[in-house]
């Protein structure tokens, strides 16, 4: 089994955070999120796919992961390229921005994989934040947009045994300043929370219907 983590180039990272974090801070946020994800994947073979040489160097030297230099633009193309270059049939695909994932989640997925062809964990916005495939040729990969629904449709169309792994912690991907608040509430003992605290970031409750909390910088 191989775990595939596609990573966007540093210069296009998390633009919705650009008013809150500098380019260098967004890069370091990503690197810390990757460290948390790798910790949850302890013991599994990991390959990181990216066009960005700095990301590939970090993956190889700091995370001790395999790397694939992305040839074509687009998330689906990156994953298809990884499928072509790895020998493993059985795969898990995980994005680079779900730092609340835990080893327990992976243990659950591995147990479930004995009975299912496809396991999928949705994001809060209807995306796919974890996808397990018994064989990488089972479905057509359809990331972007409401990919959770697209992948479910693929599984049903092909009469696959599928399981929806509904986890709040996996559903949290980090794209906006408010998303950072989830790290403060649920991310104790993570590299990501420690890094955000080092920047003087904190979270306060918001007593209104317009969001759950306010994320601030000192």
UniProtKB/TrEMBL annotation:
Pfam family, one: CofC
One of the protein's GO biological processes: F420-0 metabolic process
Keyword Nucleotidyltransferase appears in the UniProt entry: yes
InterPro entries: CofC, Nucleotide-diphossugar_trans
Pathway: Cofactor biosynthesis; coenzyme F420 biosynthesis
Signal peptide residues on this chain, from the entry's feature table: none
Catalytic activity line of the entry: (2S)-2-phospholactate + GTP + H(+) = (2S)-lactyl-2-diphospho-5'-guanosine + diphosphate
Keywords (A to Z) from UniProt: GTP-binding, Nucleotide-binding, Nucleotidyltransferase, Transferase
Enzyme class: transferase
GO molecular function ontology, one term from the record: phospholactate guanylyltransferase activity
EC number: 2.7.7.68
Role, per record: Guanylyltransferase that catalyzes the activation of (2S)-2-phospholactate (2-PL) as (2S)-lactyl-2-diphospho-5'-guanosine, via the condensation of 2-PL with GTP. It is involved in the biosynthesis of coenzyme F420, a hydride carrier cofactor.
Subunit composition and interactions: Homodimer.
Protein family: Belongs to the CofC family.
PANTHER family linked: 2-PHOSPHO-L-LACTATE GUANYLYLTRANSFERASE
Identification of the protein by name: 2-phospho-L-lactate guanylyltransferase
Organism: Methanocaldococcus jannaschii
The gene coding this protein: cofC
């Amino acid at each position: 089994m191989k775990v595939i983590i596609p990573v966007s180039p540093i210069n296009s990272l998390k633009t919705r955070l650009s008013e809150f974090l500098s380019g260098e801070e967004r890069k370091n946020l990503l690197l810390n999120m990757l460290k948390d994800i790798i910790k949850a994947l302890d013991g599994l073979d990991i390959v990181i796919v990216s066009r960005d040489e700095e990301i590939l160097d970090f993956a190889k030297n700091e995370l001790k992961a395999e790397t694939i230099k992305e040839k074509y633009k687009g998330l689906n193309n990156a994953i298809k390229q990884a499928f072509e270059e790895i020998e493993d049939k059985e795969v898990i695909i995980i994005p680079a921005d779900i730092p609340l994932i835990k080893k327990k989640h992976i243990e659950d997925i591995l147990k479930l994989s004995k009975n299912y062809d496809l396991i999928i964990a949705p994001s809060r916005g209807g995306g796919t934040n974890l996808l397990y495939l018994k064989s990488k040729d089972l479905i057509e990969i359809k990331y972007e947009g409401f990919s959770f629904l697209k992948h479910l449709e693929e599984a049903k169309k092909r009469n696959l045994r599928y399981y929806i792994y509904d986890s709040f912690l996996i559903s949290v991907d980090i794209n906006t300043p408010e998303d950072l608040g989830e790290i403060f509430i649920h991310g104790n003992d993570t590299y990501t929370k420690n890094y955000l605290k080092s920047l003087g970031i904190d979270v306060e409750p918001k007593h209104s219907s317009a969001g759950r909390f306010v994320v601030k910088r000192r």
